[in-house]
Amino acid sequence: MAIDIAIDLGTSKTVIFGNSRIILEEPTIVTADSETLEPVYFGGEAKETLGRTPDTLTCIHPIERGSIADYDSAFEMLSKYMHDAFGSKIIRPRVMACLPTGLTELQHRFMGKVIEESGGRNVTVIESPLAIALGVGVDFSQAEGVMVVDIGAGVTDIASISLGGIVQCDSAKIASADFDDAIIKFVRRTFNIEIGPLTAEHIKKQVGTVVQRPVEITMVAKGRNLRTGLPEAFEISSAQIYETLFDTAVTICNAVRKVIEKTDPDIVSDIMNNGIHLTGGGSLINGMDQFMSEFIGARVIPASDPSHSVIKGAAYALKHPSVLKDMNYQVRSVKELIID
User: How far apart are alpha carbons 313 and 159 in whole angstroms?
Assistant: First the structure.
């Protein structure tokens, strides 16, 4: 019997939702043979090799900034995930795919094609902001404006929505991964120590903040001394991280402000009254909702499950297609998005 599933093929992780639950959630990364590019590890196993591979292996990020960067690796990875999730004895599922706003027709085509070739059928797409609105339970069918902000790993999706459609939107090419890059650069500049992306991510989760903490916290991390080439430990504080991440947080908030500036005044008034719904893994960094609220001058409402708002909204739209058909929005197949 055929089943319906939703797929969020994101920059940092891939999530598959079906049968009213998350069936699979794995990092979007592949470790491959350096010469043949044949996949060796996928997902969590591949992420553990990040920054630790010998010359014979290389880590590949199939999705970068929300779009396919390596088609073959994306196909191999998603085929593996589909098999892990469902086995090989099911009818090809109907798929609702979440895509960032602002993708080109070619990027739409590649995304749809890789999902179909990996085992899906009748692939339809929903823009992430609409999926988020459904995922956090916002009623955007009325003539009243709402705003959603999704800070992912590679892109930040921002949209003002009214009457079931996107009024203004942007897919800013700055997001959670840029916090990690800022930490790597700070540690190199301040301590003369090189750290990898996994260590930077760990520092961000442990002491990362975009507002000053009332009580400073510290942690010890390890890296390679650039002068001696030897391992070395260093202590880093939340105050240092606050200064390091400040500029990236400002850039994200400026992208939100630009969307607001292009939105009709009456909808902006609604947004100021109703608040901005904040979601995505990047929103979990300490103080992000407070920082954005003070920067924009509006109430910011953090999602209860920010890491899964998009996939839950897409799954809801797949199960209840009338929720979008009754509005000024139509779920489209990938083929309808392609201009021959």
Answer: 15
